[in-house]
Design brief:
single chain, 357 residues, mainly alpha, 18 helices, 2 strands
């Protein structure tokens, strides 16, 4: 964990300095009204990319490296493969090097570059989004679910089209992302759900549906898994690792609860917040359902990124005298959650052939 702790410190300091040395944004398309210092933002990005890209273990890393070494990745094999975008990426990387580390590094660079760029555009306090990206667990997930986080990062770039209401451009990005992980297709119908005003009847019904699904999960899962049994996700019906930790659900839901209490103020300072809130709400729905079967937490990856934007705005919902206390509260509580999840619960031991202390 030593390297991961250092990464957290470096990312937070550089991202904080990026905001500290920010300048007013005079562009009419600016969301945050400030232009972050790009040099310090680059420092935070480099730490994320290097630590994520130079790892040699954690989660599925070994299996991605093994598959990269095992396959030849030729054009003739593409028609037999699913997720052809990811296959083509590996095919081109294989022409550069047979070392599987190039796949891990490339995926980490692409994922973190795209995520950080969207944070810089939409996050009011960049350092909080970056901090919770790590302490909330998504950065760690990027080392386990490499392909899906890469897919989510690509789909995340469609945020501007959710806000502008350009479904065609949004759909093109989602369809491209789905060539890396087909589960991204769920984002196509989601577009029409999140275009409603936040906390409307439609969005509240989503939470009600989640509770109903949890109550009748056996019947729901039987119907769902029978419908996907002939797809690449059919094996999920045999997934027996239990449900997601209720603490994680509470951590996911807390920012949304604050956003609900300050919904009018949030719309005032961040007019585009309805779309961000709605995407976060859908993520909470999947997290609630995942208490019955952890595999549903995989879908929440696509929506957690929006929650990271939301967290960076909720501090501004409080009075100026209270904002410092709320800011420090976020830092402390997410740090404790990170320690609990990474050290106590998962006992993460980061290894790298390139980075050591």
């Amino acid at each position: 964990m030593t390297i991961l702790w250092w990464n957290l410190a470096v990312v937070f300091v550089f991202s904080f300095l990026s905001r500290y040395f920010a300048k007013p944004a005079f562009s009419s398309v600016s969301i945050t009204s400030i232009s972050y210092n790009k040099i310090f933002a680059l420092g935070a990005l480099l730490s994320l990319a290097l630590v994520g890209g130079l790892r040699s273990n954690i989660g599925d890393t070994y299996f991605y490296k093994y598959a990269y070494e095992l396959n030849d990745f030729t054009w003739g094999q593409i028609k037999e493969k699913e997720n052809i975008g990811f296959w083509i990426l590996q095919m081109f990387l294989k022409r550069i090097s047979d070392d599987p580390q190039i796949l891990i590094f490339t995926a980490a660079v692409i994922s973190n570059v795209l995520i950080v760029l969207i944070f810089l555009k939409y996050s009011r306090q960049f350092e909080l989004s970056a901090y919770v990206y790590i302490t909330g667990g998504l950065f760690l997930v990027s080392m386990n679910g490499l392909r899906q986080v890469l897919t989510a990062a690509i789909a995340f770039t469609a945020t501007r089209f959710i806000i502008s209401g350009n479904f065609f451009a949004y759909a093109l990005i989602v369809l491209f992302a789905s060539t890396f992980h087909e589960s991204a297709l769920i984002l196509l119908p989601i577009y029409f759900l999140v275009r409603y005003k936040a906390w409307s009847r439609a969005t509240i019904m989503l939470l009600v549906i989640a509770v109903v699904i949890v109550a009748g999960f056996d019947k729901f899962s039987a119907i769902l898994f029978s419908s996907i049994e002939n797809t690449q996700y059919g094996h999920y019906k045999d997934f027996q690792e239990g449900g997601a930790n209720i603490i994680r659900v509470a951590v996911f839901g807390a920012p949304l609860f604050i956003a609900f209490l300050g919904r009018d103020r949030l719309r005032e300072i961040f007019p585009e917040s309805d779309y961000i809130v709605n995407m976060s709400l859908i993520g909470l729905v999947f997290m609630i359902i995942s208490t019955q079967n952890w595999i549903f937490a995989r879908f929440s990856i696509y929506f957690t990124l929006y929650q990271l934007i939301l967290i960076a705005w909720i501090v501004k919902l409080f009075n100026p005298k209270e904002q410092r206390f709320v800011y420090l509260g976020i830092i402390v509580f997410y740090f404790l959650f990170y320690y609990y999840e990474s050290v106590i619960s998962l006992n993460i031991n980061y290894k790298s052939d390139y980075i050591s202390f």
